[in-house]
Design a protein that fits this description.
- It is a single chain.
- By secondary structure, the chain is α+β, with helices and mostly antiparallel strands.
- The protein has a domain at 1-13 and 48-71.
- Helix content is 35%, strand content 32%.
- The protein has two helices and four strands.
- The protein has helices spanning 14-25, 52-64; strands at residues 3-9, 30-36, 41-46, 68-70.
- The chain has a four-stranded antiparallel sheet.
- Strand 2 (30-36) and strand 3 (41-46) form a beta hairpin.
- It is globular.
Amino acid sequence: MKELELNVEGMECIGCENRIKNAVLEIKEVREVRASHETGNVHIVLKKEITEEIKNNIIETIERMEFEVRK
């Protein structure tokens, strides 16, 4: 699987979406990020198959910005 869907609490505006997109795109395995504050959804396309390590890195990146990833 090369795609990951996360539900994220705390996105309130386009600025929040952009903060998440920019931070997650800095992770070398990430190809594309789409975030929606309206749905609370973050869709991530990876360059290679997802591993627990990559997934945890993405979640930690988002949570360091004071957002909560619903598990």
